Amino acid sequence: MCAGISDRGAPPKVEEVVTGRTQRTATVGVAEHGNSALLVTVAPDGELLDRRRIDLTSGLPTHPYHHEGAWAVGRYLNSPWARPISLVEAVALVERVHQAAARGAREGLEALAAAVPVPIASIAVRACPTLPPTIEERITDNRAQVVADSVMYREALAVEAKARGWLVYWYDRERVFPDAAAVLGCEDVNAFLNTMGRSIGAPWQAKHKLAAAAALAAALAPRAVANRR
Predict the structure, then answer these.
(1) Is 165 left (phi over 0), alpha (psi -120 to 50) or beta?
(2) Greatest C-alpha distance within the chain
(3) In a domain? residue 66
(4) How far is 71 from 86, CA to CA, in rounded Å?
(5) Range(s) of the domain holding residue 197
(6) Residue 137: how many other CB atoms lie within 10 Å
(7) Tens of pLDDT, residues 166-208
(8) CA 20 to 30 Å from 26, out of 33, 109, 200, 213?
């Protein structure tokens, strides 16, 4: 059971005071999957306002660091889908995918903001590891090359969210469910998330729950933890 929650299962109301008046705002939680992202938007009272998937790129390789970049430096060449590519070509390809991801994030967040009935104030994105600064360094560094594609898509969403004036909350995948439970005063946050999913219907999978938990945790996160990195 969740303390302080109304009969319909909503967490305590969160409001932001703007210019001397109270304004109701929403928070978006993100769970990335390849070059797409699941976005779950919640109101201050815990109401599920929107659930959607957006594709950040189209018609381009989805993992240019991990695939083409790896092939360029001699990794995974025995895979059946490997093809010859130079490092210069791989860097240029990654740059194109970066640009496409930025456009996709901008268009996706713009469409979301237009569809949600209240202003969006913040977004929760999974925290990114620190990587080398250049594309070439990320390709040639084995550890960085494995995670660089996911970081690219997460950072594209964060950059475009900041451009819209939204706070960016970087969540820890291992901490986000306990953090959401603490916000809600719940012992069983999974039951709360299952109820939330039933309110909108299928699909409601593990990544949807992750995005919803991130949005709930971010809704009451101190400003000190937002926009950090």
Answers:
(1) left
(2) 64
(3) yes
(4) 8
(5) 16-225
(6) 13
(7) 999 999 999 999 999 988 888 889 999 999 999 889 999 999 9
(8) 33
Asked if the structure places residue 97 within a domain, the reply is: yes
Distance CA 93, CA 90 (A): 5
Looking at residue 155, which CATH number applies to its domain? 3.30.420.10
pTM score, two decimals?
Answer: 0.87
Q: Who's near 64: CB < 8 A, 6+ residues apart? A: 90, 93, 94, 97, 149
57 backbone dihedrals φ, ψ, rounded to 5°: -140, 160
β-pairing, 167-171 vs 120-126, is parallel
Spatial CA neighbour of 2 closest among 183, 175, 198: 183
Q: In this predicted model, what pLDDT tens digit does every residue of 10-32 receive, in sequence order?
A: 333 333 333 333 468 999 999 99
Task: Report the domain count for the chain.
Answer: 1
- From the number of C-beta atoms within 10 Å of its C-beta (0-12, 13-18, 19+), residue 217 rates as buried
CA distance 100 to 125: 19
